[in-house]
Amino acid sequence: MNLKKFYIYIPCYNEEDNIIPLLENIQELRNCSINTGIDVHAIVVDDKSTDSTAERAQSFIKTHKFVTMIKHDPNKGLVGVLETTFNDAQKYVDNKNILGIGLLDGDNSHNPLTFYPMFVKLREGYDVVVASRYQTGSMIMGVSKFRQTLSYGMSILFRSFGRIENIRDYSCGFRAYSSGIVKRVGSVRLKARSFACMVELLTVCAKNGATFFEVPFCLRYDFKSGESKMPFMKTIIETIKVLIKK
Q: Could you tell me the residue range of the domain that residue 135 belongs to?
């Protein structure tokens, strides 16, 4: 069987209690995906964690050759991780046996098995596939109703400003990108300094002719250990700025 490689990049900052369960879940995805012709690899991008995230990931890597790690020094934030991801991925995307790359949060709130339907859409020719909180069948667990309401309200606002076809969830970091769009975007440089960079990256892909699709998923904040690292109001303000500029 001619396997297509798929590289999952994992942004990590102080995820010592989450990184091993997440890597074990990616291993489960890898074991199952081989039968569908996809060879899954994982790349931990440690953003100069101050806890034992890097050490725990390294201990896993010693016995699991499908995982590698990139270490930032100094800390570069999520925007730096995204830039590192697209820069590093350029060495893969010229290979015809590359399906694409994926991104998911390092806090174990995203189930890697959701990549299954995302693989299908990449094979159908879509460039960016988003695991969306706002598709029929999606579930959100471990997030307060107040914050869910705020997030949904902002989603409506983002759609009003953004107007990217087929996209309802602009800020979720759980995504798959085709090798073609990664190559066209190239070594991206993003201006947004907060979590708004996730929205900016969508607009960059759109400007490079990307086609988009969303799949439902279950967000499991009840699985993660530790508090959210997203400054909510700052992210909202910077995201609106990004969409207005677009």
A: 4-245
Q: Which pTM value belongs to this model?
A: 0.88
- Give CA–CA dist 68/53, Å, rounded: 13
Q: Degrees (nearest 5) of the Cα angle 42, 220, 85?
A: 30
CB 49 within 8 A of CB 14: yes
Q: CB–CB of 3/41 below 8 Å?
A: no
Determine the pLDDT at residue 164. Answer: 87
> pLDDT by residue (tens digit) across 181-209?
999 999 999 988 777 888 899 999 999 99
Cα–Cα dist 201/11, whole Å = 15
Number of domains in the chain: 1
Grouping H, G, I as helix, E, B as strand and the rest as coil, residue 82 is: helix
Q: Which CATH number belongs to the domain containing residue 189 in this structure?
A: 3.90.550.10
Q: How far apart are the first and last CA of the chain?
A: 43
For 99-137, write each residue's pLDDT tens digit: 999 999 999 999 999 999 999 999 999 999 999 999 999
Using alpha carbons, select from 79, 76, 75 the residue that is nearest to residue 197.
Answer: 79
Tokens 């759609």, residue located: 159
